[in-house]
């Protein structure tokens, strides 16, 4: 039986890492991947470990989280320390030690195994593609390397913009327009499908299902977005519906991952009764609007107000999203 070993930070995992692991896995019967992390790393080790396990379910993916020297010049006992770390994580004999960088040759002399230098990085080929990828460059500008990020990492770096507002304020229409403008996808409203199927007389269990289903759709769609995901609504709006329908907001509807930006649509759009509307009078709609806005404020979300004509709404939304993108780009490059 051939056993292989790889270690790295995978911060974050990218196409170079994935192709390295997949190539190595094809050459051995068992492959161990050691994910190394420190408490102050810019991407938590727990996240990277989970990503690598998701990406490589046929490998033994383990973690080392204790402080250790990162370079030979950091500690005279550098190689002894790392030999003990590797032995703890891989007590079996190592047949092949795989790496995409030259350090693998020296490491192999200490931990055992034949050094197998895989990948374009060590060969200095494809410098504008997989062979030139680096975690540091990706962390500084993740959207610039989008095509080389696996889905779990895209889920981490994608931005989510969610439309928020009561019935008949144009959320679905604006969501489609924004998705087309940013050449990405959008997540439709589950609650509408649910109510068209089961009716609008919702109890707590219906509202919980609606909110959970909406969040599940958003989570599933985020890795497929073109950097930016547009959501027609999310569980926070379901929480507002709950306040209107049953008199309170279940905690579970408020604790989900929040969008990076909410667009709070004003109640100044022409009301259209399409047969599924619940709160039709001006008084009820105004009350619902206050509750919806209050859900955003209590959750301390990042939101902007969007009102006016359809054209004005679209322009306001685009400006707000562009500001968000610019702010995130500056923040990650800093």
Automatic annotation (TrEMBL):
Residues 161-313 form the NadR/Ttd14 AAA domain. The keyword Ubl conjugation does not apply. One of its GO terms (molecular function) is nucleotidyltransferase activity. Keywords: Nucleotidyltransferase, Transferase. It comes from the Bacteria. It holds the Pfam family AAA_28. InterPro entries: Cyt_trans-like, NAD_biosynth-regulator, NadR/Ttd14_AAA_dom, P-loop_NTPase, Rossmann-like_a/b/a_fold. Signal peptide: none annotated. Coiled coil: none annotated. Residues 7-101 form the Cytidyltransferase-like domain. NCBIfam families: cyt_tran_rel. This is Nicotinamide-nucleotide adenylyltransferase. It comes from Sphingomonas limnosediminicola. The lineage of its organism: Bacteria, Pseudomonadati, Pseudomonadota, Alphaproteobacteria, Sphingomonadales.
């Amino acid at each position: 039986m051939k056993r292989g070993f790889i270690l790295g930070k995978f911060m974050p995992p990218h196409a170079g890492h994935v192709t390295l692991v997949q190539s190595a896995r094809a050459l051995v019967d068992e492959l161990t991947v050691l994910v190394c992390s420190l408490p102050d790393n810019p991407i938590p080790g727990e996240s990277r470990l989970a990503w690598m396990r998701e990406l490589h379910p046929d490998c033994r993916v383990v973690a080392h989280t204790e402080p250790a020297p990162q370079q030979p010049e950091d500690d005279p006992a550098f190689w002894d320390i790392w030999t003990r770390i590797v032995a703890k994580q891989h007590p079996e004999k190592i047949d092949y030690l795989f790496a995409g960088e030259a350090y693998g040759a020296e490491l192999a002399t200490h931990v055992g195994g034949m050094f197998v230098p895989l990948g374009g990085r060590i060969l200095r080929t494809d410098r504008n593609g997989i062979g030139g990828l680096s975690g540091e460059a990706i962390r500084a500008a993740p959207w610039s390397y989008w095509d080389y990020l696996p889905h779990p990492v895209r889920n981490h770096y994608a931005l989510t913009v969610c439309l928020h507002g009561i019935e008949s304020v144009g959320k679905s229409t604006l969501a489609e327009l924004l998705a087309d403008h940013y050449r990405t996808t959008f997540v439709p409203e589950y609650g509408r499908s649910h109510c068209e199927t089961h009716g609008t007389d919702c109890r707590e269990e219906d509202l919980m299902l609606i909110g959970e289903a909406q969040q599940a759709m958003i989570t599933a769609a985020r890795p497929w977005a073109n950097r930016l995901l547009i959501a027609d609504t999310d569980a926070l709006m379901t929480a507002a519906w709950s306040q209107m329908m049953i008199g309170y907001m279940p905690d579970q509807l408020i604790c989900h991952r929040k969008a990076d930006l909410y667009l709070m649509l004003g109640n100044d759009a022409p009301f259209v009764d399409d047969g599924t509307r619940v709160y039709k009078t001006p008084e009820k709609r105004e009350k619902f609007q206050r509750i919806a806005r209050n859900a955003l404020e209590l959750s301390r979300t990042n939101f902007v107000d969007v009102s006016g004509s359809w054209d004005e709404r679209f322009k306001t939304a685009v400006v707000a999203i562009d500001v968000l993108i610019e702010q995130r780009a500056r923040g990650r490059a800093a």
